[in-house]
Every structure is written in C-alpha cells, then in structure tokens.
Amino acid sequence: MTTRHRAALLALAGAAALAGLDAALVRLGAIAPVASVPLGEVHGVLMVYGFLGTAIALERAVALRSGGGRRDAWGYAAPAASGAGTVLALAEVAGLGGGRALPGVAWTASMALFAGIYAAVWRRQPSAAVLIQGLGAVAGLGGAALWTHGVENARIVPWWGALLVLTVVGERLELARLAFLTTGTEARIVTEACAVLVGAVATLVAPGPGYPLLGLALAVLVADVAVHDVARRTIRASGVARLMAACMLAGYGWAMVSAAVWVVGGPAWAGYRYDTAVHALTIGFALSMVVAHAPVIVPAVARRPLPYHPVMWVAAGLLHLGLLVRVLAGARAAEDAWRLGGTLGVVAVLVLVGSVVALLARTPGGRAARGRAVPSPVPPAEPEPQVAGR
Questions:
Q1: pLDDT for the residue 299
Q2: For the region Disordered, what residue ranges are annotated (predicted)?
Q3: Alpha-carbon gap, residue 199 to 218, rounded angstroms
C-alpha cells in the first residue's frame, strides 16, 4: 500500500475523531459545530472503532506488511473496513443509512480482520505480547458484534475497555520487553489479561458479580504492568522520554479509578458514576497512552519522523486536567463544571491531532528512521534514555 493510501486511511481516522469530538460536545450539552442528537448517539463507537480502531489496525497492518511479503497486504483490509464503518455511521446520522446494521457489519469485519493480523503474527513469532493484543482484538470483535445487534452502549463499555486495555498492555510488553523478563512475569500478565476478558463476559451474563470481578481483574493487571514498566525510571529523564513516561503512569492511575468504581459500586450504566468509569478508561487511560506512544507509532505509519515538541505537554496537561475537573464535578453533581471538564478534554485531543499534523508537515518525507517490524525475532525495545544523576 502506498503512502497515499495510508494517508487516506489516516484521514478516515481523523474524520472519525472530529465527528466523535463533535458528538462529545453534543452529549455534554456544550456548543457544538454540528448540534446533531443522532451524532451524539454514536460518539462511543466513532471514538473506539472509527478513530482508535482504524489507527491501531493501520499501525498493525503496516507492521505486518513491513515484516512479510506482498501477500501480507491483506492486513490493510482491517483499517479500510473500520474507515468504511465510519463513513456508513455518518451516513446514518445524515439520514442516508439503515440503522446500526451496515456500520456494525463493517466494524465487526474490521475487528475480525484485526484479530486475523495477530493470528498471522503469532504464527511467525509467538509471544505473550502478541497473545494479549490478540485477546484485545477478540474483545473488540465481541463489542462490535454486540453493538451491531442493538445492545445498549453502556452494556458494551467493558468490552470496549478490554479492547483498549489489552491492546495497550500488549504494546507495553512488546516495546519495553526487557522490563518484563523477570521469572513468571509475562505468564502472570497473560493470566491477568484472560481474567479481564472473562470479567467482560461476566458483566453481560451476571452484572451483579461481573462488574466487581472485572474491576478486580483490571486493577490487578494494571498494577502489575505499572510496577514493571520502565516508565517508572524514565520519568526522571527529559524531553520525549519524560513525556511518554508521565502519560503512561497517569494512564495507569486513571485505569485504577475505573477499576475502583466497578469494584466498590458494581454495575454503572448511567449518571456521573458511569461517566467516571467510562472516561477514566477511555480518556484517562487510552488517550493518555495515545499521547505517550505517538512518537513511536506515528513515524511507523506515516513513514516520517515525528519530532518532539513541548506542545505535546499542553495536549497531555489539558487532557488530564479536563478529566480531573470532570470527575470531581461529577462527584458533586456540578453540571457546569462537569461540562467544562469535558470540553477541555475535547480541546486536548484537538491540540494533540493539530500538533502531530503540524510537526509531520515540518519534517522531510521518506521512511521514518525507526519503524516497527513485527515479525523480527526480537522487536525493537524502547530506548532507556540517560537519566540525570545515573
């Protein structure tokens, strides 16, 4: 696939992000460029499958193709199907579609192909990282199928959360593998990842005990990964290494908030408690990890380096400040402050996307200096920068 084709898929992910952010403003009751109630109803799927799903699947497809031959170009069908789902969902919002069926089928197909990518990688290079990410793809497939069949978004959140959490955990094991090589660590984390997937299933069949089980499994997994992650050391570095570490550690903290909500309160399907559980995981954890991994992931996909710039701290700061305001305001049922916090989160994502586009535009073209070839015997680990005083 040419750079032009990859750019088109990235543009679809960007369109999903913009539409999803507009939908977020609609749901917040804030001023939105397109004040469409139907658009607000697809906020979750646009962000999870349209934006993050397309971007992650594209990165995996690029890695699969880079380490194989022309026959491995089939992996690009995953982000293409996800992008098609976005177009079909927006057509439905505009009154041109027929409900969830068409976008749902496209997103379900995308997740099936996404899982297939991990199956292909597993055949080449079996590892705990690939297995965990594959489990995340299975969770994403289940969530897409549930949405297609008309299940309420609130009931699907655990599946979407499992997709995001397991994908990120697998990425951490892949990129910072040396930190997880102590005896039994990888096997234990795989077991904990399986427990998260079991917890997601339990929330559907037995919500009462299922949500506390999911919260407990999530808390154990996140704590285990955070304790072993190299980010605990690179936070003392400078520049991009400190930015990445700060975003990762903050993300782990927010995931623990979601886990605590489910462990202590059980099912949360509406109200401020639901809002906290959902957005601590999707904004605090997932989007924070997007900021953290952008310097690694974007060059692999765009085939040009993404230079570090302090403006990325602005995006990260606004993201976490907005979420903190949103959660605290929700706890006090302060609607205006809650709306302000949510709006700050939207601004944060716009700053992130805008800064990435601007920084890429300022760099020369050509292949990135550092890509990620999945099938290599030993995938490249994140460098551990020199820390002052070490």
A1: 85
A2: 367-390
A3: 9
Nearest residue to 144 (alpha-carbon basis) of 118, 116, 168, 111: 111
Please report which residue ranges of the chain form alpha helices under DSSP H. Answer: 3-28, 37-41, 43-45, 54-66, 77-93, 101-124, 128-148, 153-175, 185-205, 207-228, 231-234, 239-265, 271-279, 288-302, 311-331, 335-362
- Specify the pTM: 0.89
Q: Is the Cβ–Cβ distance between 220 and 192 less than 8 Å?
A: yes
* 3-state SS, residue 145: helix
Which ranges constitute the DSSP H helices of 47-184?
A: 54-66, 77-93, 101-124, 128-148, 153-175
Q: How far is CA 46 from CA 5, 215, 218, 303, in A?
A: 21, 25, 24, 26
Topology of the domain covering 3-362: Cytochrome C Oxidase; Chain A (1.20.210)
CB 88 within 8 A of CB 103: yes
How many angstroms separate the CA atoms of 192 and 126, rounded? 18
